[in-house]
Write a structure and sequence with these properties.
Blueprint: E1 15-21, E2 24-31, E3 37-41, H1 55-59, E4 63-67, H2 84-98, E5 103-108, H3 112-121, E6 126-132, H4 153-159, H5 163-168, H6 172-183, H7 193-203, H8 210-221, H9 223-232, E7 239-243, H10 247-255, E8 263-266, H11 274-277, H12 279-292
Helix pairs in contact: 2-3, 4-8, 6-7
Length: 300
């Protein structure tokens, strides 16, 4: 895998790469040289940088990959046809490109629907699936946009055509750093102003919110499709849910799309952005879950 010079922030021990995937270029980082492979998939308002503290902890035992989904980070911008289904196919092609075999796939926040689709449509790509603070369309996620019952306003705004570019791109730093993270109670010790600047660097570009817009549009429209998928192809691989503020919500959603028992882990006292707020706890929980799933890479 040829390496590239990072366009933004980086951490020790990772290399940066580009992969041509479904007529789009995806940026990803890799770390670690042995053990079963892990693919980390970020949420919103995040990029691969959300896993900056987790990657070194996992890479001691595993080969770790963290991707910028299409329309996020340093990957190509997405067009108006971008959706959770497109994102899942992007991951399928990326996994084939990496040639590392089936992977432990970990998705958080809005990427929950993406990694679920990947697992349901391409189960051969996965060793296990871990969902962190995630929801699924058709199983309650739509309620997150219902402002009359505690939902958040920006989901509908992002899903509306053209609004992301009009309202959010030029104010990406303020929206992320002064509104979103404080809204969720994230402390500066977890997400610093420098971290916010790294996220805003790419969200503030033209099309920087295009990925988020597409995934939120999917969340509001694909419910029936995911219900049908769950009925026809329930997950039969090991599934773990990791929740803090939304632990019960995550467990309930993924339990309804899984044929067997879901391993549910609750991280009390942690906020919504688990990878950034409790990296050590998250890494330990992920590694323990892999052991429970019989992953020999951790049995030492």
């Amino acid at each position: 895998m040829p390496t590239i010079t990072p366009a933004g922030a980086t951490i020790a021990g990772v290399t940066h790469h580009l992969a041509r995937v479904n007529e789009s270029e995806l940026h990803y980082v890799s770390a670690g040289t042995s053990g079963s492979p892990i693919l980390l998939v970020h949420g919103f308002p995040e990029t691969w940088w959300a896993f900056r503290k987790v990657i070194p902890l996992l890479a001691a035992r595993h080969r770790v990959y963290a991707v910028d989904l299409r329309g996020f980070g340093d990957s190509d911008a997405a067009d108006e046809n971008y959706s959770g289904a497109v994102a899942a196919e992007d991951l399928h092609v990326l996994i084939a490109h990496l040639s590392a075999g089936p992977m432990h796939v970990v998705g958080q926040d809005i990427s929950g629907g993406v990694v679920y689709r990947l697992a349901a449509t391409h189960p051969e790509d996965l060793i296990s699936l871990t969902a962190i603070e995630s929801s699924l369309a058709g199983f309650g996620a739509e309620g997150l946009a219902d402002v009359t019952h505690g939902g958040v306003w920006y989901i509908g705004a992002l899903a509306a055509p053209g609004i992301a570019r009009l309202l959010f791109e030029k104010q990406a730093n303020a929206f992320i750093g002064e509104y979103l993270y404080p809204f969720f109670g994230v402390l500066p010790t977890a997400v610093s102003s420098e971290d916010v600047a790294e996220f805003a660097r790419t969200y503030g570009r033209v099309g920087g919110f295009s990925g988020a817009a597409g995934l939120y549009r999917s969340m509001l429209t694909e419910g029936h499709e995911l219900q049908t998928l769950a009925q026809n192809a329930p997950l039969r691989l090991p599934v773990t849910t990791l929740g803090s503020r939304g632990g019960g919500f995550t467990r309930a959603a993924f339990s309804r799309v899984t044929a067997g028992e879901v391993t549910a882990i609750q991280l009390d006292g942690v906020g919504h952005y688990v990878a950034q707020e409790a990296s050590q706890l998250l890494a330990e929980a992920i590694l323990d879950a892999f052991v429970d799933h019989g992953d020999a890479a951790n049995n030492h």
